[in-house]
Design goal:
mainly alpha, 2 helices, 24% helix
């Protein structure tokens, strides 16, 4: 299925279809698309609060120092 929203500039249109549809029976529907309202956004303080509430401290995760000492070779 191919769905595309366009804004026609003239009365006649030409469409390009995939090679796999050539010679097959296809249905073309033309209707005015519904105008969708933007979803809006959360207040800035709520965004920050929700973000930080989703992050939890995990003591089993190694610190940066532990990662560097065990995984990075000495470059001196």
């Amino acid at each position: 299925m191919i769905q595309e929203i366009i804004i026609p500039k003239r009365k006649r249109l030409t469409i390009n279809i995939p090679e796999s549809l050539v010679g097959k029976r296809v249905e073309v529907i033309v209707k005015e698309a519904e105008k969708r309202e933007p979803l809006g956004s959360l207040p800035a303080d709520l965004k920050d609060k929700a973000f930080w509430e989703d992050i939890a401290f995990d003591a089993s995760f190694p610190s940066i120092e532990e990662i560097r000492s065990t995984a990075w070779p000495d470059r001196l």
